[in-house]
């Protein structure tokens, strides 16, 4: 790579320690960018577990919405909309690093879109082009509660997607709270309609075609979106002896379709199910005799659990984006029965790597489980991991670098 082709990339994410999918994404992508000769630094909140950073050690203070002093709880609603601290601290990094690309990830509420304003100001002050790229890990820019799902009714909802954010307050869509929903509505209105900071984003990377279609409802984003499925670490084919169980791994919550799945489990007492995870419906999971609750499982233990399963089931009832659980199952040689909702259908090759059922349809879920159980034990889906065609980090990088340029 020539000196002219090398880029300086500033990764922006509120958490700079292992916390979830977006952190795994920025760490692995950052590592690969460095391996290809680019320079990468990071900006976000300070935290005792922070494992990446920048040369001037400039970060915002950690915001703990669940703890903190009484004074901090009073000031948080203001700070979640606009952050002077974030502008001051990111300016230090911009002045020192002088990036070519600012790659935004999860930044709302803790960092706020204030960082976009400062980036544009820095670019203008220094007469330097700064490309702003945003990877949408959820629906935050078009839905204040980021899920396009009303937690009070359990219904999927697109009322705010076109910019009518007052619906968030009407539905009490954030934690069922009028106050929190009002803050979420105010944040969305301020940045979408008053300040209009999002117009400065050059490109929005959506992790599914479905997400792109929803983001495009808002005219601010319609000409900026690009769909690229998440990358996943490549794995070698392994001949693992299957064991007689069906696996669910993930959160035990209503939007994940757990209540529907539990009804099916009860109606199929002769099939063993294993659940790996935690969540508010854990007591219900523990109350069914043919379910073994393994709790939260990670790493190699989880991989082996997936590999040995006859099938895995992903019965979600909200607009899933690009769930790693669905991708990992197939990569590890286990076919997936997935709900036909959100970005899930884009990940499953029906009849080859899994099957689909109508989300929320308990009768169809039961029928498909029985059919897949029988077919998988008879040798169907044997080449599941060889058929899958997900991007590794190299393929993903080759697509992303064109957006950076």
Overview of this structure, please?
- The structure is a single chain.
- This protein is of the alpha/beta class.
- It has 2 domains: 3-137 and 201-231 and 393-404, 3-Layer(aba) Sandwich (Rossmann fold), CATH 3.40.50; 246-387, Rossmann fold, CATH 3.40.50.
- The protein contains 14 helices and 12 strands.
- It has helices spanning 21-35, 70-79, 84-97, 114-125, 166-171, 178-194, 209-215, 258-267, 282-286, 299-308, 324-331, 362-377, 384-387, 393-404, and strands at 8-12, 39-43, 101-104, 131-136, 203-206, 225-227, 246-249, 273-276, 291-293, 311-314, 336-339, 354-357.
- The longest helix is centred in the middle third of the chain and has 17 residues, at 178-194.
Secondary structure topology:
Elements (H helix, E strand, L loop, with lengths): L7 E5 L8 H15 L3 E5 L26 H10 L4 H14 L3 E4 L9 H12 L5 E6 L29 H6 L6 H17 L8 E4 L2 H7 L9 E3 L18 E4 L8 H10 L5 E4 L5 H5 L4 E3 L5 H10 L2 E4 L9 H8 L4 E4 L14 E4 L4 H16 L6 H4 L5 H12 L1
Parallel strand pairs: 1-2, 1-3, 3-4, 4-5, 5-6, 7-8, 7-10, 8-9, 10-11, 11-12
Helix pairs in contact: 3-4, 8-12
- Low-pLDDT regions: 71-75
Sheet with most strands: strand arrangement: 2-1-3-4-5-6
Number of helices: 14
Helix/strand structural class = alpha/beta
Gross morphology: globular
The radius of gyration is: 22 Å
Helix and strand sequence: EHEHHEHEHHEHEEHEHEHEHEEHHH
Mean of all residue-level pLDDT scores: 93
Described by strand count, sense and barrel closure, the largest sheet is: 6 strands, parallel
Please identify the top-level CATH class of the largest domain. Alpha Beta
Oligomer: single chain
Spatial separation of the terminal alpha carbons: 14 Å
Please tell me the CATH architecture of the largest domain by its name.
3-Layer(aba) Sandwich
Helix content estimate: 25-40%
